[in-house]
Design a protein that fits this description.
Blueprint lengths: L1 E10 L2 E10 H18 L6 H5 L12 H18 L2 E8 H8 L4 H4 L3 H19 L6 E5 L5 H8 L9 E3 L4 E3 L3 E3 L4 H24 L6 H4 L7 E4 L2 H10 L10
Parallel strand pairs: 1-4, 3-8, 4-5
Antiparallel strand pairs: 1-2, 2-3, 6-7
Helix pairs in contact: 1-3, 6-7
Length: about 250
């Protein structure tokens, strides 16, 4: 069985869901490698936002760019060597709203996150079926912007298994007590942050003012499978799920 771990990132009106998929052996190997990786750098977890802003356990590297680059390089090497595929789905809110004016999109997929989260799950499942595997178990970082919408999206026919929601690091919940973090989600956080940052800086890349970050360029030949939503693709999704057109009274 395959398992996919996903996280989301939001940049202004752009929402992206990213994740990695692998089998049991791959994820077990990842867990060993990642645990040793964190111990090597003497940090309790990897959280990309804290890393980028020199916060928490990463504050000590503010003046050590060599170590920061090596840290990201090692993280990417582990993620790529222990997984089978990575996926990226993204959509702009302005596009979602434009299609929603013609189709009853929001009644079926309650948010951008719900729509592209379902697309990410579908994509992972298509990869699994192509590889002659069973359905993928999908796990999302808890605390996303629309958990209820994503659960409802999984029930849209043809249904997929409902995703699980887990933290990427240990947290103490008032109702559930200590919840152990799944470190596989830390790799999804890394990917989501890189894609969010790439989108934010894309106009500067196009103008030649800036080149993509070194950590992004290191993806090399094993770049994620990227699906950024276009209007044509969003309309095709409406047709695929038999989402009706709006009437003049809607």
């Amino acid at each position: 069985m395959l398992t996919a771990y996903f996280d989301e990132a939001i940049e202004k009106d752009f929402t992206v869901v990213c994740g990695w998929v692998s089998d049991v052996n791959g994820w077990e190997g990842f867990e060993v490698d990642w645990t040793l990786f964190l111990a090597k750098y003497e940090v309790p977890y990897f959280h990309m936002k804290e890393f980028a802003q020199f916060k928490g356990p990463f504050a000590k590297w503010k003046d050590n760019e060599t170590r920061r680059r090596q840290f990201l390089s090692d993280a990417l090497d582990i993620a790529q060597s222990r997984t089978l595929r990575s996926f990226v789905c993204g959509i702009q809110e302005v596009l979602f709203n434009r299609v929603n004016r013609s189709y009853k999109l929001a009644e079926t997929f309650h948010s951008c996150y719900a729509l592209i989260g379902r697309e990410a799950m579908d994509w992972a499942n298509r990869y699994s079926h192509k590889a002659a595997r069973s359905e993928v178990k999908c796990i999302f970082e808890d605390g996303g912007p629309d958990k209820g919408g994503l659960l409802a999206a999984a029930d849209v026919a043809p249904m997929v298994s409902s995703p699980d929601f887990e933290p990427s690091r240990d947290i103490r919940d008032r109702k559930k007590g200590l919840r152990r973090g799944l470190i596989q989600l830390q790799a999804a956080d890394f990917l989501a942050y890189e894609l969010r940052k790439f989108w934010a800086d894309y106009p500067k890349y196009r103008s030649g003012e800036r080149i993509p970050r070194e950590s992004f360029r290191k993806f090399g030949a094993r770049k994620p499978d990227v699906r950024l939503m276009t209007q044509e693709r969003a309309v095709a999704i409406c047709q695929r799920y038999s989402i009706g057109l709006r009437s003049a009274n809607d």
